[in-house]
Amino acid sequence: MARIVVVGAGMGGLAVAARLAAQRHDVTVVERSDTVGGKLGWFTRDGFSFDTGPSLLTLPAVYRDLFLKTGAALDRSVELVEVDPVCHYRFPDGTEVDLPNASRGRVVRALDEALGTGSGAQWAALMDRAGAMWEITRGPFLESPLDGARTLVGLSRRVGDLRTVAPWRTLRGLGRSYLRDPRLVMLLDRYATYTGSDPRRAPAALATVPYLEQTFGAWYVRGGLHQLGEALHQRVVETGAQVLTSSTVTEVLVEGDRVSGVLLAGGRRIEADVVVSDADAAHLYGDLVRSPAADRARTSLAGATPSLSGFVLLLALRGRTPGLAHHTVLFPQDYDDEFDSVFGTGPHSRAPRPAPDPTVYVSAPDDPALRPDDDHESLFVLVNAPRHSVDDAAAGIDWDAPGLASSYADRVLDVMASRGLDVRDRVVWRELRTPADLARATSSVGGSIYGSSSNGVRSAFLRPANRSPVEGLFLVGGSAHPGGGLPLVGLSAAIVAEQIGRA
């Protein structure tokens, strides 16, 4: 039995703590906030409540496995509700489509009816390719520790598999080879943002994201997604782990080349044989670990592009919006301009800026737990945004600049109105969350949501490995392998728990 400290009580930290405690290790979770769940946040005011992070769960098998291997089944702790349709999309030309949940045939019919005969067949052919990609990559790339570029070398020995995954190809490039309708390409491009990336640079393998969503379904947790975090916290306690909130780790202690514990603000030391970090990898290697053994990891991180961030409006509204879906996406006229704005790229290599005409994502679960009564509703509104940066204009913008957040919120509301969702005269109050707020809350680089982006062929190999160069130090969560989002974070916890179990 090992003494293990988990730094951070996000979903990755809680998941690995539950698995390790179930293996009879002595586990202590240390969280600087007074709440758990990390980015799976929750905000409530005047009877209006909001999930401030993920709004749906895909690949629920990851969490079913976690709960079964640490105690009672997931369904004993939370109620999963199928989200159908998964999303309502509105394209720049005014075309609208509802994408059904977990039904290939219904998706094909919906696309044919909205975009024209043959559209569904194009999308289905792409999903067939994505399914083949998933079968090839799930084992070596997502369910196992990443063995550096050797993982790709192993794939290259199987020429057919290499051709299917096409690691040299971008998501946009793959889409255009299958999809003749630019609206379908736009639909596919959106899935790059699930990893905080640019579809023109992100790998084609991200086509597996819509494949998973449409094959295994999209689910909501009754009462809000934060209930999943609460249930996991309870499971951690039930397995015997200790959770310390309002406790900030200031240093991961290293003796020689091996961890020996952590140091908390105020001077308390917690001795440990193993430390698992659920903190952002850049924060871990930049601020918490001072060992020269971590220099290689710091160098690798410096070569990666941090993911995009997000600008959020929490809207408390009078009245109800007729026919409003659980998820709504309102696309812009020029999607490329949005990515150029957020990442500071494009033909003129301009600095990052808030996208003047952004894609608007709206989450509005029909859940009485989120509203004071049936005459009001709560809307979570998100747009992709450049990271927060005070001193480096090439890295982001200063979201704390006076008036910027409020004026951009007004702009987003105007954009929503121009696309048929005008709520401006119904706002009771609004709460804004900027990339600067996210950076302060998570110690991520400028508020990057997913750690490193997937921009570039080598992006997967620049993402920090689960086993660090410092002996006894492991990484879990969205900024480490295999990536961000609830399913991948859960997979990272399974990988780390297995690595420690074998040690």
TrEMBL record:
Pathway connected to this protein: Carotenoid biosynthesis
InterPro entries (UniProt xref): Amino_oxidase, Carotenoid/retinoid_OxRdtase, FAD/NAD-bd_sf
Keyword tags: Carotenoid biosynthesis, Oxidoreductase
Coiled coil region boundaries: none
Pfam family, one: Amino_oxidase
Residue ranges annotated for the Amine oxidase domain, each copy included: 11-497
Entry superkingdom: Bacteria
PANTHER family: PHYTOENE DESATURASE
Protein family according to the UniProt entry: Belongs to the carotenoid/retinoid oxidoreductase family.
NCBIfam families with a match to the protein in the record: crtI_fam
Protein's recorded name: Phytoene desaturase family protein
Lineage, highest ranks first: Bacteria, Bacillati, Actinomycetota, Actinomycetes, Kineosporiales
